[in-house]
Recover the amino acids of this structure.
């Protein structure tokens, strides 16, 4: 075989390889760009810390259900989702507050006898369900 | 001469006797404070006894508080000193102690003392007392109204008879009559302040927190879960859209 023929074959193989690599890379890019359309836009991706499994649950540390008090003002203490809307309702009083810190400490008056109270937390992220807690507490005046 | 000497001796004895009696008197007087000093251990003992008494009283009060329980329900039966209370299927037995138990009727924010004989079937009673062998010995019996507090979404508005249908999160449907006496509030979505509203402001889809009065066991006014609303607090749906 002539020297020129060998050089031509080597060059042909080299250029063929370069073209093959170029085509394969290009086809990958095309495939990726096609996949991008299927993937949700960045702004719609829910942050992992907002999934319902990880959402901070309502934790009411005070008062306990069926607790007896000898004073007519108590405090609701606990933690709930930050920036949620807290509603505490009893026949005597309605309290509406924004839970800006995550930790809440709310003063609440009691009526003499039984107090049926419902507390509902409405998270800022509307896709989450409200969290509820119903309790009964008793105010029995120590003088009785 | 002898007489003069004797006289002097007598005067000397007299003076000495006076001095001795004065000294003895002083000694007795000086002993009085020492007797006060000797009483200080008694005071300390008294203090200890008092502290012990206080501790015992506190412990007794703590134990009483631990055993103290409050229950409520509609009176289903009165038999001598025993009362049966029923509340959503839960039955409680209450023992009345003639010398201990006090009875009151709650009138809004005040109360009126009543007698044992004033209690009647279907009254809603709140009892506080000490639990022994699943029976509550009542210290206090309060006769009051039974309230239900709940919330849900307005699913239907009836403008003809001023009523709304509410579906709660536990899938109960309430038919609430909005009467002139019903306290009606709506949350301002910007300020979160409560504002008094009229019936026309209510919309299907709004969230409503409500309070109703239940009477009788089962509630007499609760046919098809229809009650006059005592109070409503509405969160407009716009709050959840903003």
């Amino acid at each position: 075989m002539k020297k020129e023929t060998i050089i031509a074959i080597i060059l042909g193989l080299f250029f063929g390889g370069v073209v093959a690599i170029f085509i394969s890379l290009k086809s990958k890019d095309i495939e990726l760009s096609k996949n991008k359309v299927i993937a949700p836009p960045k702004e719609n991706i829910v942050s992992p810390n907002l999934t319902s499994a990880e959402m901070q649950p309502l934790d009411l540390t005070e008062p306990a259900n069926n607790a007896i008090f000898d004073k007519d003002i108590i405090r609701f203490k606990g933690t709930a989702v930050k920036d949620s809307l807290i509603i505490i309702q009893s026949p005597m009083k309605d309290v509406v507050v924004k839970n800006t810190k995550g930790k809440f400490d709310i003063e609440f008056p009691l009526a003499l006898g039984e107090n049926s109270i419902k507390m509902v937390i409405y998270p800022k992220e509307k896709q989450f369900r409200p969290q509820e807690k119903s309790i009964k507490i008793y105010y029995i005046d120590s003088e009785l | 001469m002898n007489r003069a000497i004797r006289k002097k001796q007598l005067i000397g004895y007299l003076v000495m006797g006076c001095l001795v009696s004065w000294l003895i008197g002083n000694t007795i007087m000086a002993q009085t404070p020492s007797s006060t000093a000797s009483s200080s251990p008694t005071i300390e003992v008294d203090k200890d006894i008092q502290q012990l008494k206080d501790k015992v009283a506190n412990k007794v009060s703590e134990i009483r508080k631990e055993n103290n329980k409050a229950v409520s329900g509609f009176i289903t039966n009165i038999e001598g000193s025993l009362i049966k209370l029923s509340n959503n299927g839960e039955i409680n037995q209450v023992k009345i102690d003639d010398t201990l138990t006090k009875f009151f009727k709650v009138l809004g924010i005040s109360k009126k003392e009543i007698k044992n004989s004033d209690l009647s079937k279907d009254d809603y009673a709140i009892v506080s007392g000490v639990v022994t062998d699943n029976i509550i010995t009542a210290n206090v019996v309060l006769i009051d109204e039974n309230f239900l507090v709940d919330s849900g979404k307005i699913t239907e508005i009836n403008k003809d008879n001023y009523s709304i249908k509410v579906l709660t999160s536990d899938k109960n449907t309430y038919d609430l009559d909005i009467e002139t006496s019903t306290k009606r509030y709506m949350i301002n979505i910007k300020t979160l302040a409560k504002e008094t509203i009229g019936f026309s402001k209510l919309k299907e889809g709004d969230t409503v927190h409500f309070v109703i009065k239940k009477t009788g066991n089962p509630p007499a006014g609760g046919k098809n879960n229809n009650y006059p609303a005592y109070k409503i607090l509405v969160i407009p749906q716009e709050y959840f859209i903003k």
